[in-house]
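User: Predict the complex.
Assistant: Input components as received:
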Amino acid sequence: MSVIGIDLGGTKLISAIFSEDGEILDVRKVLLHGKKGNEVSELMQSQLKSLLTIGDSSADQVRAVGISVPGIYNAGSGTVWVPNIDGWDNYPLLSELSETIGGRKIDIEVAGDRACYILGETWKGKARGCQNAIFLAVGTGIGAGIMIDGEVVKGPGGIAGAVGWLALNKPYEDKYIPCGCFEYYASGDGLTRYANELLSLQPDYSGMFRTREVNAYNLFCAYDDSDEIAVQVIDNAIEYWGMAVANLVSILNPEVVIFGGGVFGEAVRFLDKIYQEAVKWGQPIAMKQVRLEASWNAEMAGLYGAAKLAIGYDDNLSE
Amino acid sequence: MSVIGIDLGGTKLISAIFSEDGEILDVRKVLLHGKKGNEVSELMQSQLKSLLTIGDSSADQVRAVGISVPGIYNAGSGTVWVPNIDGWDNYPLLSELSETIGGRKIDIEVAGDRACYILGETWKGKARGCQNAIFLAVGTGIGAGIMIDGEVVKGPGGIAGAVGWLALNKPYEDKYIPCGCFEYYASGDGLTRYANELLSLQPDYSGMFRTREVNAYNLFCAYDDSDEIAVQVIDNAIEYWGMAVANLVSILNPEVVIFGGGVFGEAVRFLDKIYQEAVKWGQPIAMKQVRLEASWNAEMAGLYGAAKLAIGYDDNLSE
């Protein structure tokens, strides 16, 4: 038997057939090119159809499909909420994919990408063999996939892992309203936002960001040239990343915290500094028991997680 | 059949026989009076013996014993670490109680008090029917009992719930080394500590704490008289309690957070203010889904939790 994993990202869609032990038998990748609403679902259905045809004609029949979406899945209604895709506010993904499946006896499992990242990492990546592990996804926003005693934590409302909202520096400021305190400073958008805030507060600054575009990538480059804005922004983020790690470790005592998402990437070289910051704050024994890692495969962890969702048929995720 | 629950606190020992549905059939309570090492174990054994005798002569035979300790239980070695009892660094509690049990076929379960508090509250208290609930114990120190999907979270090292170490206000200060940032300001000892810190920083203050003893109880009384030290200390703690709630809710999306421990008590009247602080910081939907409660029964929640430990025989806790 085989399974299909589908990983919908903000800009691309990757799908593959997997053997039960996790070998990729066939893979498809396509860019979304700003598609929205139905168009995204049609793209997904067309990839699914094409992979099902392969499955139908092979000895390894497909028995389940797992889908990772960059948002929240409401299993009660079979709908998804994906803020970065227009028209996917409450989108009936399950019923549309069920139609594609047709009369075949194939289970469909859907979960948020945070859950799939940690499933991928515990199955094939840096958390293999771990029952207690956390994936900290730092991209445009910040979220976490949390596994405890072998089960992915989703929370009764499906919102668990919303760590972008961590309160890490009092007093409260109204600027945290749209995204939370941690995400305000330490997401990809946060780095840019805080740099612009500092630029407007430091009129004497005459460095490269008076002319160069402020974005996360340029900030990392400028950090190496000791640009004073970049140093303030990145050092501030390292402090926040460390505090967030410390809090997750003190609360949950995991074996590993894995950093992924668009920012890690570039920020992976700061893992030692992040640990040094975290170890100051966190419960000392728990901090000794945890290791920090970069994602095993930023491009594929979500896809593998989607396949594992199909293979594992985790009741906790399918409620 | 029946079970025995034993709740060891820092100053007293309570034991009871329970029917399977949670009715107390017989209860014993005794103060520790500064007992240490063996003496505490002997006291526990004598209560256990006395309750076993009742069980032996009744139709409701005892089938299991659950024990709550104010520290950490190492199930591998059957030893407990209880910082507030002299000589209980690595104390062989399980083997001593097994001897008391003798030839009877009775299971013994031991767990930390945080785990027992949340078990008691989900069984008989303010979290009845909840699968996802947190007990925040604010006494001399701060810790949390966390239940996710019906299982108590302990972490691979048994340290989960060490929320006194939450990082809530940067930059880091060395004074957090012994206990963590959250506990430094917002535990019972923390309230006193911060008040003394403010007293030394505010030489112009001429209020009641120039003569009256600084302790949590007096600070709560003085708060009502708008004493400026008390107001700063308590308002500061409310901010921290709110941030901690927000962080637990954003990470875990629980149905309820229950406040207990020596400080709540007095601080229960601030639950609304704590919620108002938390709702500013936390993930907005998750904050709408959670309610804050005071412990159902501060005196007995741990005892009921110990009994539930015996009844439920939770593999997760007995590893």
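Confidence is low (pLDDT under 50) at residues 314-319 of chain A.
Let me know if you want any component modeled separately.
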